[in-house]
Amino acid sequence: HISKYFLLALIIFSTTLIIYIFRNLNILPVNHFTNYSVPVGGFIFMLLTSLGLTNKIKELTKENLESEEVN
User: Fold this and answer.
1) What is the average pLDDT across 32-39?
2) Is 0.90 surpassed by the pTM of this model?
């Protein structure tokens, strides 16, 4: 599950980075969306990565509790 979160986060961040590069090359117009695409993409990247890591920690904690109950 963590790889799905990370892959989605990476795709979103890469897309916003490409938007910002196209703005600098004057392919896209300069506006609020293109100016702040990289910070917003970075925020979404951190958010999705944190969600993926939280999900993995919960899974590992659950597995650890289940294995302790068996022993």
Assistant:
1) 94
2) no
